[in-house]
Specification:
By secondary structure, the chain is α+β, with helices and mostly antiparallel strands. The protein has 2 helices and 2 strands; from the N terminus they run ββαα. Strands 1-2 form a two-stranded antiparallel sheet. Strand 1 and strand 2 form a beta hairpin. The radius of gyration is 17 Å and the shape is extended. The protein starts with 14 loop residues before the first strand and ends in a 9-residue tail after the last helix.
């Protein structure tokens, strides 16, 4: 079965839970699925995500606490 998923022992296997089923995917299918999720999210929430992420990481590295989730 691992051969069908393009996986070897110890590899992470992409998966999703859909319609009450756990679905395993090969790497290529997992990548396509992840890309479709990000593309859909980007359409619904346009903006400069990379700059926001970099600013958040720099603030965390500076230790000022901005960007940390204290929830």
């Amino acid at each position: 079965m691992l051969g069908l998923l393009d996986a070897r022992p110890g590899d992470d296997i992409p998966w999703r839970f859909e319609d009450g089923e756990l679905r395993l995917m090969g790497r290529a299918a997992g990548l396509r699925f992840a890309q479709s999720l990000v593309a859909d999210l980007a359409k619904r929430h346009p903006g400069d995500w990379s700059s926001a992420l970099l600013a958040e990481r720099r603030a965390e590295a500076a230790g000022d606490g901005r960007g940390k989730d204290h929830g």
